[in-house]
Each structure stands twice: as structure tokens, then as C-alpha cells.
Amino acid sequence: MKNFFNLFYKNLFLTRRLLFGLIAAVVFFIFRFFFSWLGWLPNLYVGALVLLAIIDGVLLYRTRNGLFARRQAPERLSNGDDNELGIYIENFYPFPVRLGIIDEIPFQFQKRDIWFKTSLAPHQHKLLTYLLKPLKRGEYEFGLIRVFTQSPLGLLMRRYNFEESEVLPVYPSFLQMRQYELMAISNRLSELGVKKIRRLGNSMEFEQIKTYVPGDDYRNINWKASARHGTLMSNSYTDEKSQQVYCIIDKSRSMKMPFEGLSLLDYAINASLVLSNVALLKEDKAGLITISEKVGAIVPAEKKPAHLNKILEVLYKEKTRYLETNMELLYSTVRRVIKQRSLVVFFTNYESMPALQRHLPFLKRIASFHLLLVVFFENTELKMLGQAPAANLEDIYIKTIAEKFAYDKKLMVKELNKYGILSILTSPQSLTINTVNRYLELKAQQKI
After folding, report:
1. Which of 82, 85, 89, 166 is nearest to 125 (CA)?
2. Three-state secondary-structure class, residue 17
3. Which candidate among 12, 173, 201, 284 keeps its CA 20 to 30 Å from the CA of 181?
4. Chain-wide mean pLDDT for the chain?
């Protein structure tokens, strides 16, 4: 009896068509009170409506499992990217049905409109796809798939609940990483905004002797080999390999600031993952250090095939902390972990000149041993305020203060350059492009 209650009563709903029919019945009875000639017509109408509702219920419930639904999702989601998910639905009824489908997505998305309307012919199946864009790393729990079914009569609606609860992890932006990887393999990085850097000279790593073709640098002609072969031969050089590229990510409170839903820490993590992948594609070694008031994760620089997955797993677990970065500890960690001269990319954020001045002594020490690149962020909200027209005195004050903060950021770049420290001042959205461009530029200029 309890199973029948759960199967029939709890999952049975009235449709608008039936409600409008009942309202029409009430109107019929009201009219009969004034017009006696209507007689038994309202009673016949109500009887027909009830009979059709019973027939509709029999159609919906005579097939015990009239529908099948399953969520199709990847093993993990990519943070900050549009991830495609799907719902596979199949109709086992011998008649066409109209469906309303609710997918109970994780609460982190704060969406209540994942509702699909579709129809299926007898024994037809269909795949419905939609996109989700997570803005925070971690575990996301999906709930049930609820399907509301109507027969051609459309008076009643039966609900199916499919136990599709699952937990999907949200990792740093591996979709963006793959996009850069595919573009790099096919030499189409310029489509993503990566600049083609002119090489200033030849790297010192010899690759092979090959036949000279028009367009090769004539300075690389190997005259001895040309004399032996009776044709012009040219020395071929390749990029210097096995150089170390370390990404250092600041996890302090300054990286908690959000832009377009993502925190600065997440932007830095996504950029670090892409930069590490590009460095490995260039046959350099990629390493990682995270820091706040204490040392977080340390991944020594390597170029093994599985090394990128190790970096990905470490970045997945990193979270913002709420204390200031211990720069003395960072310096000692860099000296202990990084034994040879390397490119050190430090992702952090400075909102004022005093904040930079506190870090500057330790940044100068690191720069004396390594090629240091400090990456920090423009405040795009303040930049928009500074560019907005001023309509009154209050707007003038706001605009002046915003421009003052923007000017301070430019002064920080000059201050770093004064001590030979490279820097990138970028908007969060352009972080990955600008960082990869600078890495390729430094590599082409043979500074690492």
C-alpha cells in the first residue's frame, strides 16, 4: 500500500489543461443556476472530464517504467570554462509524450532554471545538452533527474525520479590548457593572441646538418659539409631545452579579490597551469611553489610526461588564506628548492605602493639569483570608474581617486624595473595570454 502511495499519489500532478477544464465546469454550473435550459449538460461535461482524466492516468501508469533518463557528464569540470553536460532520455511508451525535465545541479551555480521541454515519439530517444560554468574549485554534488510526463490527452502529469546523484570535482582550467596545447602543436597560437616573437640570435644548442634551402640564414652554412656533399649544407639549431620555469603563486588575502566570479587566485592557478604546459611543450622543466604566511605545495621542476597531472592535482587543492605573505620564508624556500638559475614567475597582487615596498627587499634578493617576473593585476573596476564621465562633484572625486590608484600601479612597474625585476601589469582576463607571451619573448631573447 505504501509503495502504491509513493508510486501513484506522490508523483501525480494536475496540468493546466485539467485545471482550466475544472474552472469551465464551475462556470457551467453557475450558468445553469441562471439558465435552467442547460439541464444535465454541466453534469455530462464533468463526467466526461473525469472519465478522460481516469483514461489519462491509466495511459501514464499502465507502463511501470515508461521512461529512462541518465545524466552524461565528464569525469571532472574545468573551472572558469563552459562545460558541456547532457541528459539522455528514452521513451518506452507506445504513444508520443511531452516532457518537462529538471536536472538538480549543484547549489554553487545558484541556478533554478535548468528546465527542458521536449517531446518524444514512441520508443524514441534524445540527448539534451546544456552548459555549466563553475567559478570555484572543489566538489560539486548533482542531485536527481526529475522528468514530468504527459500523454496526448495532457490532463495529468506523472513524475519520474532517476537516482543520478553524483559528485564531480572542479579542477583548474584544463580546457583552456588543452586549447593552448592544440594551438601550439599546430602553430596557431596567434589565434589565441600569442604573439610571434622575432628571435634575436641563434641558440647554442646544435641539432643537425641539413640541406640549405632559400630562406635559411646564410651565416649557418657549413662549408666543410658543403664541400663533402657537393651542395650547400646548413647547420640547424634548436631552442635551448631543459631550462627551469617555476610558477610561484601567492595565496594570501590580496588574491581573494573576485573579478567576473573568479578570484585572483583562480586566475593565477589557471595561468600557471597553461604556462607549465607550454613550457613542457617547449621541452623545459616546469615547477610550482605556493606561498602565504607559510609554504604550501612544492613541486620540483621536471619534464616527465605525467608531471603536468601532478601539477594539476596540487593546484586543485589550493585555497586562499587570509594572512599576509611571508616574503622572508619565500626567499629561503626559493634558495633551498631552486638550485640553478631559472625563470621565476611570481603571481601576486599589489594595491598600494607601501605593499610593494614591504616585498621589494626580498624580490631584489630573488632577482639576484634568478630571472624574476612579477605578475600582478590591474583593478578593472577602478579603471572603468576612471574612464567614466563625471556628471557631478561626487563623480569627480571618485574619478580622481580611481585614476590615482591606476597611476600607482604604473609606478609599481617602474619601481620594479628600476631594480632589474621584470613585471607584467595585466587585467585578470588577459593574464594567461600576457604571461605566455612574456615567457616566449624571454625564451626567444635567450634570457633564460
Report:
1. 89
2. helix
3. 201
4. 86
- Judge contact between 129 and 84, C-beta under 8 A: yes
CB 123 within 8 A of CB 152: no
pLDDT tens digits along 113-139: 778 999 999 999 999 999 999 998 989
pLDDT at 205: 54
Query: What distance in Å separates the CA atoms of residue 271 and residue 250, rounded to the nearest whole number?
Result: 13
Do 440 and 195 touch, CB atoms closer than 8 A? yes
DSSP 181-246: HHHHHTT-GGGGT---PPP-S--SEEEEEEE--TTS-GGGB-HHHHHHHTS-EEEEEE-----EEE
The conformational region for residue 110 under phi > 0 = left, psi -120 to 50 = alpha, else beta, is left
3-state secondary structure of 247: strand
- For residue 269, give the C-alpha cell: 592557478
Q: Residue 227 CA to chain centroid, in angstroms?
A: 57
**Which region among 85-99, 337-351, 393-407 has the lowest average model confidence (pLDDT)?**
393-407
DSSP secondary structure of 71-138: EE--SSEETTS-EEEEEEEEE-SSS-EEEEEEE---GGG-----EEEEEE-TT-EEEEEEEE---S-E
343-347 vs 244-250, strand pairing mode:
parallel
What are the pLDDT digits (tens) for 249-268?
Answer: 999 998 998 888 889 999 99
Positive or negative CA dihedral for 353, 354, 355, 361? positive
- Spatial distance between the Cα atoms of 56 and 61, rounded to a whole number of angstroms: 9
Element (H, E) at 376: strand 371-377
- Please give the residue that has the higher pLDDT: either 57 or 210: 57
Domains along the chain with CATH numbers: 1-171 (2.60.40.10), 174-198+240-444 (3.40.50.410), 205-238 (no CATH)
pLDDT tens digit sequence for 293-350: 999 999 999 988 789 999 999 999 898 888 899 999 999 999 999 999 999 999 999 9
Residue 76 CA: distances (Å) to CA of 70, 80, 199, 320 = 17, 13, 39, 21
CA distance linking residue 177 with residue 278, whole number of Å: 9
Helix, strand or coil for residue 443?
helix
- What pTM does this model have? 0.77
Residue 295's DSSP bridge partners are: 291
Beta-carbon count within 10 A of 222 CB: 17
Q: Give bridge partners of residue 377 from the DSSP assignment.
A: 426
